[in-house]
Specification:
CATH architecture of the largest domain: 3-Layer(aba) Sandwich
Largest sheet: 4 strands, parallel
Radius of gyration: 20 Å
Number of strands: 8
CATH topology of the largest domain: Rossmann fold
Number of helices: 12
Order of helices and strands: EHHHEHEHEHEHHEHEHHEH
Number of domains: 2
CATH class of the largest domain: Alpha Beta
Strand content: 15-25%
Helix content: 40-55%
Shape: globular
Structural class: alpha/beta
Length: 311
């Protein structure tokens, strides 16, 4: 049996000219305002364009090497090429079944069910059975990798304050699905423990809140900077616990916008390296994939059972 594996993530515009169409896809077909397009295009210019698609392809290659014979791995984007449908069509004829892994360790039905729909529709076209691995935020190899990246970044710094961050969500999403934020906080606790951080060494905060009229979860990380500086810290170390690759929310929201705020507060800004295509991430993802394959108790099924890790 040969299994096709899809590493699924958001995607990115091809270039600045693609920004309006990309944003419209993200917004379910709604046309973004000229002001929003201009601001997002500016952010992509500042970081030299998003490397997300390239990095995800590199992650797929690394995972393929780790999994070895019997697997074919592809990158699959939700809102840009190569799409989930593109990836499934590329694998059709080569594989007997599909396993999808969303490249966010935590799972929210409200925020991420689009990945399931895209995989289900593409698999139905190809006639392949499929399984989507949902939450995998307690995967020991993933936790160990982020902890190691903290130790690596922390070593040359003098008593840095450490912020473990996750993408903020609207309050209405949290109110109807509070378990998602519990997953984020559980990840932070596991990572801090694995890295050997004392309780007063670190804080949990949100980042990248949307610019909308509705309420988003707080505190935003930049709101904590003045108090951290007032407490005597001179270095701040940012640790995204949800992102696995360099992309806009890391390279702009953190390395440009948050850095400026940190420096304005008198803090020297630092961030852990992102996992990207490190072999340790490939090993963690291989563990997740193999668990997904283990649920293929009946290959004739159109959809395999949902992962027991899902909330």
């Amino acid at each position: 049996m040969t299994t096709g594996v899809l590493l699924m993530t958001y995607g990115a515009p091809r270039d600045e000219r693609d920004v309006p169409a990309y944003l419209a896809r993200v917004r379910g077909g709604r046309t973004p305002s000229d002001e929003v397009v201009a601001e997002i295009a500016r952010r992509y210019r500042v970081i030299g364009g998003s490397p997300l698609v390239r990095v995800t392809r590199a992650q797929a290659t690394a995972l393929g090497h780790e999994l070895g014979q019997g697997y074919r791995v592809r990158a699959a984007m939700r809102f840009s090429a190569p799409t989930v449908r593109d990836a499934v069509q590329d694998l059709a004829g080569e594989v007997d079944a599909l396993v999808g892994v969303v490249l966010s360790p935590q799972w929210s039905d409200q925020l991420m069910s689009g990945y399931r729909r895209a995989l289900e529709e593409a698999a139905a076209e190809s006639g392949l059975p499929w399984h989507l691995t949902e939450a995998w935020y307690e995967e020991p190899l993933f936790i160990g990798l982020i902890a190691a990246l903290i130790r690596e970044a922390r070593a040359p710094l003098e008593r840095p304050a450490i912020l473990l961050t996750a993408h903020s969500i609207p309050r209405r999403v949290h109110d109807t699905e509070p378990g998602y934020v519990e997953q984020l906080r559980r990840t932070a606790d596991l990572v801090a423990r694995a890295a050997g951080l004392a309780a007063d060494d670190w804080h949990f905060a949100f980042q990248s809140a949307g610019h909308t009229q509705e309420e988003w979860l707080r505190p935003d990380l930049v709101e904590l900077f003045p108090g951290i500086a007032a407490g005597g810290a001179r270095n701040i170390l940012i640790v995204p616990i949800q992102f696995l690759a360099d992309h806009l929310e890391v390279l702009y929201d953190l390395d440009v916008a948050a850095r400026a705020q940190a420096e304005a507060a008198g803090l020297e800004y630092h961030r852990i390296a992102m996992p990207n295509d490190r072999p340790e991430l490939a090993r963690a993802l291989a563990s997740v994939v193999r668990r997904g394959v283990s649920f293929a108790s009946a290959p004739i099924l159109r959809a395999w059972p949902r992962s027991p890790q899902a909330p």
